[in-house]
Amino acid sequence: MTAMMDIAPVLPRTGTGQLVLVVDDDEDVRDLVTFKLQMAGYRTTTAGDGCTALTIVNEALPDLVVLDIAMPGMDGLSVCYRMHAEPATAEIPVIVLSGMATETDIELAYVSGAEEYMPKPVNTGELVRRVRWLLPDRH
């Protein structure tokens, strides 16, 4: 039942730019990242867990996903791997944000399909720069 309530934000919020899905179980992080991306001209939608994120990815086909690793239920690495295993979502770029920053954690993020890895606490200016780099033609 919780997943259904989390799907409500599927409708893109504000802006006319590309759609970025922000996935993090920490509401404060989701809100900060969402705000900064909206200020940079991107439309955003959010999810608080991996299962909801996959549902949104498959229904909304966002242009990019900002994804936490450690979440309840399905973790971010599993979400990233499943996205890249499906032809319809395999080309959607993923930026991983995580408090887990060991060499192994970073390598696992890249092996699962992430294009970028950023440690928490996130530098939101750098995050916006990386989003622009991954979506240059359409913004």
Percent range of helical residues: 40-55%
Low-confidence spans: 1-12
- The neighbouring-strand order within the major sheet is 2-1-3-4-5
The count of strands amounts to 5
* SSE series: HEHEHEHEHEH
Strand content: 15-25%
Backbone shape: globular
What features would you highlight for this structure?
6 helices, 139 residues, alpha/beta, five-stranded parallel sheet
Topology (SSEs and partners):
Layout: H1 2-7, E1 19-23, H2 27-39, E2 43-47, H3 50-60, E3 64-68, H4 76-85, E4 94-98, H5 103-111, E5 116-119, H6 124-134
Parallel strand pairs: 1-2, 1-3, 3-4, 4-5
Structure explained in plain terms:
This protein is an alpha/beta fold and 139 residues long. The chain is built from 6 helices and 5 strands, in the order H-E-H-E-H-E-H-E-H-E-H. The protein has helices at residues 2-7, 27-39, 50-60, 76-85, 103-111, 124-134, and strands spanning 19-23, 43-47, 64-68, 94-98, 116-119. It has a 5-stranded parallel sheet with strand order 2-1-3-4-5, with helices on both faces.
